[in-house]
Design a protein that fits this description.
The protein has 338 residues and is of the alpha/beta class. The protein has two domains: 233 residues, 3-Layer(aba) Sandwich (Aspartate Aminotransferase, domain 2); 87 residues, Aspartate Aminotransferase, domain 1, CATH 3.90.1150. 41% of the residues lie in helices and 16% in strands. Strand 12 and strand 13 form a beta hairpin. It starts with a strand and ends with a helix.
Length: 338
Amino acid sequence: MIDLRSDTVTKPTEEMRKAAYSAEVGDDVYGEDPTINKLEETAAQLLGKEAALYVTSGTQGNQIAVLTHCRPGNEIILESESHIFYYESGAVAALAGVQTRTIKGERGEMCPKLIGEAIREADQHFPETGLICLENTHNRAGGAIISIDNMKDIYKVGREKNIPIHMDGARLFNAVAASQKPVTEFTQYCDTVQICLSKGLGAPVGSILAGSKEFIKAAHKWRKRLGGGLRQAGIIAAPGLVALTTMRERLIEDHENAKVLADGLANITGIQLVNKVDTNIVVVDVSGLKMNSTEFVEKLKQKDILCGTFGPNLVRFVTHFNVSTEDINQTLKIVHQL
């Protein structure tokens, strides 16, 4: 199988497996797991934040951020197709008791002026704006990079109104690799950031939430409340440390493969490329083939190629380190034959 459904399907490398086997462990709820402590310290330093917290998933990291920043009855501002709004099961309402105010972005980027206008004035009729959330790269915008300038302008709005900024940076290192900018160029314009270790970086499990020491102290309690207190979890954190320290630079290979795939698909009659390919996600419209996305995906599955529907006529392909250039060429060959 050539699996292009997501960069979450990667298998851990041999180095990750060995790291898990030999990991030094302790009870993390007591703060005694040395491997987790090292991972958190390494992540905080890399991201330019005071402290970090290892969490089980990107969704848990995002939800802890909302719970820590906000109080029930607040409103959060976020892009209309962001992961927190679109793919996290309404958790901000179910868990944090906050409501969402969405802004339609351009390739995932929200207009700072519109954000400023969406921030609630002090009035007994209105909820208080508690948080502004960004997503970088933006999944439903086809892996688009939210520019540093856009983040800077939004951060300025937040500072003027005393509203914190959280970045869902699940694929932040894809933005870093593609832009050739230090990660701190991005993270300086958010108060907190979540990065996923199990997407492009290839670890089997886990994410990192980073921010100030005071914020992470409060986030620890929310992680515990959500059942995320971990014991001898260095076994799963060790592969994450390998991912964080060894897998960032190679992401550019995934981007190159995505561009080859995008160019090849765009040259097939009946297929239209939908997104500008910034990173490792390719979205195409297959309606010109006289089939819907479900039919297209099923036909490829029968040929041992996996991809995913992204709408009635849209199909998403995601490159990652378990997909080679040869796999991309084979995929294009098979699609040509449909």
